[in-house]
What we know:
This protein has a six-stranded mixed sheet with strand order 10-11-6-2-1-13, with helices on both faces. Strands 12-14-15-16 form a four-stranded antiparallel sheet, with helices on one face. The protein has a three-stranded mixed sheet with strand order 4-3-5, with helices on one face. It is elongated. It folds into two domains: 2-272, BirA Bifunctional Protein, domain 2 (2-Layer Sandwich), CATH 3.30.930; 279-371, 2-Layer Sandwich (Enolase-like, domain 1). 35% of the residues lie in helices and 25% in strands. It is an alpha+beta fold. The chain binds adenosine-5'-triphosphate. Adenosine-5'-triphosphate binds at residues 103-108, 112, 151, 161, 163-166, 179, 181, 189, 193, 207-210, 212. Its EC number is 2.3.1.200. Its main location: mitochondrion.
Amino acid sequence: MLIPFSLKNCFQLLCNRKVPAAGFKDTVKNGLILQSISNDVYQNLAVEDWIHDHMNLEGNPILFLWRNSPSVVIGRHQNPWQECNLNLMRKEGVKLARRRSGGGTVYHDMGNINLTFFTTKSKYDRMENLKLIVQALNTVQPQLDVQATKRFDLLLDGQFKISGTASKIGRTTAYHHCTLLCNTDGAFLSSLLNSPYQGIKSNATTSIPSLVKNLLEKDSTLTCEVLMSAVAAEYAAYHRIDGHIHLVDPEDETLFPGINSKAKDLQTWEWVYGKTPKFTVNTSFNVLDGQSCLEIKVHIDIKNGRIQICNIEVPEHWLPLEVCEKLNSCFIDSKFCPVETTMLTSILLRTCPQDHELYKKWYILCEKIKGIM
Length: 373
Ligand SMILES: Nc1ncnc2c1ncn2[C@@H]1O[C@H](COP(=O)(O)OP(=O)(O)OP(=O)(O)O)[C@@H](O)[C@H]1O
């Protein structure tokens, strides 16, 4: 008996089943195309996690299309302080997300499409997916010169990056996700992906900056909507599946049981900042001492996003050693993150020296150090 087609049927049958139910193959027609109705980066990344963890993709590849409100997305093994301007992001309300896949940092906004290709591990093939995108682009605009590179980027006119790739390979399933720049704010992208922090040393993966360009600059008809439809049509033709794009709500627990807790996990400080590979900061700054300038040196070791060692070197005549050591120890175990500095501020204020002059110096140093977090 053929089961009437509904997305919920598909999901229930594909979840945790080694073999699709009898008749089901005809129903799902060997694959699905989904599009998120949410523009929240954490919710959309949670859909990826959920599909990766729960679905049987044997013979049933899935294409997931999604877009986000302004967000910077770092790779699994990256250091956000090295990759982006966190202060600017906070000021402008740009979200920071750490994805589960490796690779470099990309900027998402509503002018950027994200495409996730889910397959079994054995069917995972990034070049095949990129060729499919190129084919879709050529269908809507045959004059476009787009090539896939060995690094799995897509280049326009041989030099401008329009797509970056990353992937996650699990025990049985895998996904390849990539971006596609249609009409992104390029100037904003550049300023956000420019770290102002000095003196960071780490083994984290570093991004490889490229010149980027929007497809819309080449042809004003190449909007995100047009490109999403074109890729979906190409995908359907390639896999010989129903080309209908199913809209999904990443908050729908009846479709994705447990998904909201996945989205919550992706937003935690422990995941976004705490997963940063250990790193050190060696920096210095000047403070005024009457008419002259004093150099203050700072060395900080950070592990799991928390300060393990903090050494502030100040000329003793300016701030007595015992006061400086007290300040160092206040920073130990605090989260290296400006969002968390309100808590740190209260600790620092509770422990600051009573003496008015010392208090002023203590305060200047605290503000300078918080500025590098
Ligand atoms: N949405 C985007 N689409 C394409 N390129 C982007 C986008 N956002 C930023 N970029 C460019 O890509 C650079 C990062 O590229 P990088 O190769 O390090 O990472 P990636 O493309 O995510 O993945 P991978 O490291 O796996 O290739 C950024 O510095 C910027 O020049």
